[in-house]
Design brief:
Shape: rod-shaped
Helix content: over 70%
Largest sheet: none
Strand content: under 5%
Number of domains: 1
């Protein structure tokens, strides 16, 4: 019997490659999300430090208050932008997670199909081996019977030859 080969092996390999690509993309998006969270945390920390310094040391004049107000305004604007980017990134991550799950499902379906085909192939191979073993058993018994017949004929011939010599 021929060796096992899964006729969709190339498709399975391609699907596995697609799954790995989608998973890599997901990991990149998650890393980008973590970076956005880090930036947002840094902004919140900067805002907190600026407010603490102002309340601790107090503003001495209007110019310092104006600079602080401008600084806090820039931080608030940047913080809103980061929150918006973070929300958009969350949507991209969720969509990518769905793609990864779908690709994994496709790979698993092909792997299950491959396993079914392998089980059928093994069953056919076992059937062929059983048939071969039965044929070998039959041939062996025929061979032994033939040897017995040849031995019996040989003995009969030897007896006939011995009787004629007497």
């Amino acid at each position: 019997m021929k060796t096992f080969s899964f006729r969709l092996e190339k498709v399975l390999e391609w699907r596995q490659t697609r799954f790995e690509q989608e998973r890599t993309t997901l990991l990149r998006l998650i890393a980008e999300s973590a970076d956005l969270n880090r930036q947002l945390q840094e902004l919140r920390q900067s805002r907190y430090v600026a407010q603490q310094r102002t309340s601790t040391f107090g503003a001495t004049n209007g110019a310092e208050l104006a600079v602080l107000s401008t600084f806090l305004g820039v931080i608030d604007k940047r913080q809103k932008k980061l929150i918006q980017l973070k929300n958009e990134q969350r949507l991209r991550v969720a969509a990518q997670q769905r793609r990864v799950i779908e690709e994994r499902r496709r790979v698993e379906l092909l792997e299950k199909l491959k396993q079914r085909c392998l089980k059928l192939w093994v069953a056919e191979l076992n059937h062929e081996l059983e048939s071969f073993a039965a044929e070998m058993k039959l041939l062996r018994s025929l061979w032994q019977k033939t040897i017995q017949e040849v031995n019996a004929a040989s003995t009969s011939i030897q007896n006939t030859v011995l009787e004629r010599r007497r």
